[in-house]
Amino acid sequence: MSDTSPERAGGATxxxxxxxxxxxxxxxxxxxxxxxxxxDRISIGFEEPRVGIVGLNGSGKSTxxxxxxxxxxxxxxAITVDGRDAIRDARAVRRTTGFLxxxxxxxxxxxxxxxxxxxxxKNHGFSAAEIATRVAAALDRxxxxxxxxxxxxxxxxxxxQLVALAGVLALEPRTVLFxxxxxxxxxxxxxxxxxxxxxxxxxxxVVSHDLDLLADFPRVVMIEAGRVVRDGAARxxxxxxxxxxx
Amino acid sequence: MIxxxxxxxxxxxHRIAAAPKLAGLAIVATVLFFVDEPRLLAxxxxxxxxxxxxxGTRFAEIGRDLRGAAVVLAVLGLADWWLIDGPTAIAVVxxxxxxxxxxxxxxxxxxxxxxxxxxxxxxxxxxxxxxxDAARAALTVTLALRxxxxxxxxANAIREAQAARGLxxxxxxxxxxxxxxxxxxxxxxADAIDARGFPxxxxxxxxxxxxxxxxxSP
Lengths: 246, 218
Known about the structure:
The complex is a heterodimer.
Chain A: E1 24-33, E2 36-46, E3 50-54, H1 61-68, E4 76-81, E5 84-85, H2 90-96, E6 97-100, H3 113-123, H4 128-141, H5 157-169, E7 175-179, H6 187-199, E8 203-207, H7 211-214, E9 219-224, E10 227-232, H8 234-244
Parallel strand pairs in A: 3-8, 3-9, 6-7, 7-8
Antiparallel strand pairs in A: 1-2, 1-4, 4-5, 9-10
Helix pairs in contact in A: 3-4, 3-5, 4-5
Chain B: H1 12-15, H2 18-32, H3 38-53, H4 59-65, H5 67-83, H6 86-108, H7 112-128, H8 134-164, H9 171-195
Helix pairs in contact in B: 2-6, 3-6, 5-6, 7-8, 8-9
């Protein structure tokens, strides 16, 4: 890395799956919007390499993810990531914590693939040489180097999702937050994303309605009306979730 | 509308930096507005064709990229012909067509990243006067380039859904849901841009410029 680049945030392309992580702590955190309680006094910590979050639409899953990188401020309580406050230290938190949005079209900013991967790196002050290296590495990591010069609007939904993920991974975060990553994907691309997810060295916190995606996770949290109502091994929590929503 | 985005290449225009190309385009466009002689404008149009082709883009691709602009020019030409006279209409169409072709050549050979950097420099003095935020203004232009195709897709999807439900083409019926979708998308996009570390570290002048997290309701 060049001297002009910011401190390497972590992350590695050759590391074992799930070997990177951060400690994310919600301390009595609530979010109230337009008079509605979206998150209700949540106190929970995440440090496992894989955490799944399930819940019905409107239960507060996505808001919980957005709180981690300071996109939504809590009305009460606090959220910290490795001891840094998610609101006050949002920039530092966002350097080590990536976010993959549900719809890649809402995440990809630049019209060309390589330019979009460079977008986040430029924002975080990386040098041109480091940007070129990281863009190439991120594309190679997801086996999408052939898309490098393609226009975003000409890509398929699955390709866009991989490009969006490459943009996140280019920053070499320690944690990636996934907000319903497979909801726009066909079966083939869903399987591909699942394989990519399984191999990631980064910690992954995944909000999803795709219960198969979370089936092998060491921990799954169930949210209902802004509260954590179940927290445990995937098999147990998913079974309860299915049962509760027959 | 010029539906073109940069394509990699090695043409002479590809090798020129973005700033001189944009400056050249501005000068040529300004000069052409002071030229009324149809033969000179025809020569400019021919030169523009040569320049556009020199980027490695085939005429068929240029035609496809500029078909929206061609429709506008045709309407404008017919209106001028009807309201003023033939020579004026020909001059107007040749002038605007030449400018569109030169602009096409510049956009085809200039990456969006380069364009954004130049725009940030152009907006720099206005930022120093406190009139705007250069990084955000440049990003706005970039987003326009990125999202025009997406908005067209959204419009087509709405039109198809309305047709499936028996609704005839209606600009108002299209505009309202399209606007709603664009607003919803813009909110999600704002979150994504924030999450990706915008504004750039060097561009930040202080906490006041930082986009705050969405505040909770009181």
